[in-house]
Batch of 3 targets.
Target 1
Amino acid sequence: MDDQNQLKHAIDGRRDDLIALTQDLIRIPTLNPPGDCYREVCEYLDRRLRKTGFQTELIRAFGTPGDSDKYPRWNIVARREGGTTGDCVHFNSHTDVVEVGSGWTKDPFGGELSDGKIYGRGACDMKGGLAASIIAAEAFLEVHPKFAGAIEISGTADEESGGYGGVAYLAEQGYFDPKRVQHVIIPEPLNKDRVCLGHRGGWWAEIETFGEIAHGSMPFLGDCAVRHMGAVLTEFEDKLYPAMAARTTDMPVVPEGARSSTMNINSIHGGQPEQPDDYTGLPAHCVPDSCRIVIDRRFLAEENVDEVRGEVKALLEGLKESRDRFEYDMREINVVLPSMTDRNAPVVQTIAAEIEKVLGKPAEFVASPGTYDQKHIDRIGKLKNCIAYGPGILELAHKPDEYIGVDDMVDSAQVMAGALVKILT
Ligand SMILES: [Zn+2]
């Protein structure tokens, strides 16, 4: 048997193990928020990976957002050294999953296998990818017990809430120093035949307009903050949205609609707070003196965040000129810069070649509309040779009845194991 067949054999032989591993991971409900069961999932991975000869470290991201004794932010980094020096390939998966939401017909934490699919919250995003990378590493180690360099597998917290208690923390501690790690593969669900090079940027801000409270029967004695916000939204509709739609990127973002700049108005609130559903009283008659929105602006590699910020600020300043009594405040909530790995980077080329070998068709190069942990590996770790590659259908992430296809996991494990052979032998 040649090398590739031996590897295929080793992975096919682990199919049941791959299914059981994915089911076990789904059955640990690592909901974020609040950040449940991080310790439990790390301990599970610790037992599993130590059995295969990995050295493991459990690392708590003390003091990061959300970290507390009740909800500690635990991460695991496992490393297996080869016999001789060489590059280190690191597989990074987040262990957290988003809230369940409604509309499920399957048990979200049951890990049910039916028709070649495993169902559950996090099946596709991204416990299936984590399981595939573990199986890929274990199969590789069976076929190539002697290799050069090292393999690392990490399970990290909080990706769904920004990654500050996970990859960002590890990057700050030097875990993604290019002297230590040379290739990073993040098995996010971007489909098994695509290499994801990076992601767009994001800028989040809260805008508040102010008014003056008065009796609702005499609004002319006050100043309505909601009407001021209406003027802001009209500016956005008339000027900002058309300007954003006209900008397109050379980044291969999927889906197509995300190749332009976009902005979501995340929330709007003005006037009296909403009352609980069981409140039966009538509203008091007041002119609202405050209205707030949160905006979620996604920008392209060709834009810079100062321009993005400045564009919104200019519209607000313009209203100050043109609109009587217009006052506002803008508070930045978060910034994520775009990240994009070069198409010729070694990890890109290696995975692309393996995709073609395993699936019999050329790999597609894509970029993600939303951000993921690559940003921290790039910006904090200064490690550029990083991609997302993993099984699972992107559009299923965060949806009810999320699932991962077993064949897709097997195929992508094949691709990952092939990449280990290329880089480490
Ligand atoms: Zn994810």
Note: Residues 123-143 form the longest helix (21 residues).
Target 2
Amino acid sequence: MDSVQHVGGDPLVIDNLYFSYGQLTIFENLNITVQPGEFLSIIGPSGCGKTTLLNLLSGFLEPDSGSVLLRGTPLKPEDPHFGYVFQHATLFPWLSTIENVEFGLKMAGELSPSEMREKAMHYLAMVGLKGFEDYLPLKLSGGMQQRVSLARALTLEPRLLLMDEPFGALDAITRDDMNDELLVLWEELGQTVVFITHDIDEAIYLSDRIIVLNRPPHGIYKDFKSEIPRPRSGQETRTCDLFWEYKKDLRNDIEEVAKSAVVA
Ligand SMILES: Nc1ncnc2c1ncn2[C@@H]1O[C@H](COP(=O)(O)OP(=O)(O)OP(=O)(O)O)[C@@H](O)[C@H]1O
Ligand SMILES: [Mg+2]
């Protein structure tokens, strides 16, 4: 059953999901299927439930009813099939860069020390940090630390990569660079990605599909597929007509969602 296939080979299915924090209902009958290898971004105003949704996907939170299934099985936080990248790099300050990258592999406990080192070096090089393996996190910039977090998630070769505003704290130029690097990695590795962001440009630049979340408990406000061709490339993509069209529409959508909260 565990045949080797494209790393993004399974759909992620959110089916009839209900979730509340006590009296506060966040989702009622939420249904989303994320296709294998799809790059899905989720945007929406603060408090609409983006992080909650990601925590439900990863198994950090459990639905009240309904399910989140990958290959027919609920995900658990310790599941090696997914990697999680948080908004702020969550590195152990006392471990070197390479030791931080190896951490998930150590937890999985399947490889010998030399195999772990080889794999960690491979992904560290992929995110452009070859030569920094002995640095402590404090000696790295914010963007470099976030790359270490990304390398750590990638070493597990997850079929599913969950990212919660991973580049939100970076300056605009560094974020654009990280977006390009992420796309190169994604095109090479083919994972399914669920990417949370506040940034409309970032969502359009990266995604195959964008979901705008409504205010709780209304779930999806809009779900659409991007027709911007790939490969995408910097200014050319960011200045194409479709990019501007999506940007205008998404801005309006988010304003509508924000307004509906005031009325409610
Ligand atoms: N542990 C918790 N207990 C109770 N309520 C919570 C908890 N975590 C989040 N909430 C509430 O659930 C709602 C959704 O929160 P969530 O963090 O998912 O929003 P978000 O869309 O990620 O917002 P942001 O864009 O600000 O990160 C908010 O009203 C928040 O106050
Ligand atoms: Mg959040």
Note: The two ends are 49 Å apart (CA to CA).
Target 3
Amino acid sequence: MELKKRTMPKELQLFSSLAPRFELSTKEKQTYSNLQKGYEGELMFDRIIADQLQCDYLIIKDLLLNFDSKDFQIDTLIIFPTIIQLFEVKNFEGEHVYDKEKDMFYKNMNYEIQNPEHQLSRAVTLLKRLLKQHGFQVNLQGTVTFINPEFTLYNLTPDKPFILPTQINSLMRKFNQNHSGKITNQNKGIGKKLISLHQSDYPIKNIPDYTFEELNKGITCHHCNSLSISLKGHYCYCRECGEKEKVQQAVVRSVQEFKILFPEEKVTKAKIFEWCGGMVSEQRTLRILKQHFQLLNRKRWGYYERKTASN
Ligand SMILES: [Zn+2]
């Protein structure tokens, strides 16, 4: 049973809203690409679990916790009846080397990258202590799962908690064999506790420096993210990929993008009209805002916030 879904990380949302509107630096492009790859890898792993895991389990996707003033993030956590399994999912591609002597990790033989085992063991230690503080003594195990079929790791010794792409299927079979029991109330209690401790409102790191004025305006394609959109009747059409989307949906999505990029700014009719590149008339923009958002100040400088519950 899924206790928490995975959603696109806020940082990735920000970069994908920004990319068609702003010239990212080489380093920012790299950050964006890493975030994208990381998220794709996590989704890939989610699909494998959904397809192959047949035993009784609880799953929490993308958990951000804090213990002792230290933040730690868990890509995937599975609660089996007798053990909790943590997964650090890595979508690395190409040849990598593990240097046991130095306990270091290299990409393309010589470029040093952070050893993912360190990240994993930190999360395992902190989670253990956090659960203990809440009265749960649990059996906890973690693995770094390399999801990309084109990943190769040299010098790997079997004592490392690394799962290679070729080992994932057999790992799933092993879980199915080893966990024949049923999820208990204690298991559910742990899951509930962890969800309640999840930090959903975290600050985004590595934000590029941009202003409203310097961003390209217009509606982006919901499929390919380009700004090559034409409007005809109730629909937006993408000249790049041919996808279409209802104007209403596209405007609502544009408002959400605006909110991600400018969390402090107020959503007004004029701002959104400009943000959408003047493609949707002010009257129509206002109609859509009224329908999907709540007017917070009824005076002249009224602005909108997303309607809750009813939407
Ligand atoms: Zn498109």
Note: The chain has eight helices and 15 strands.
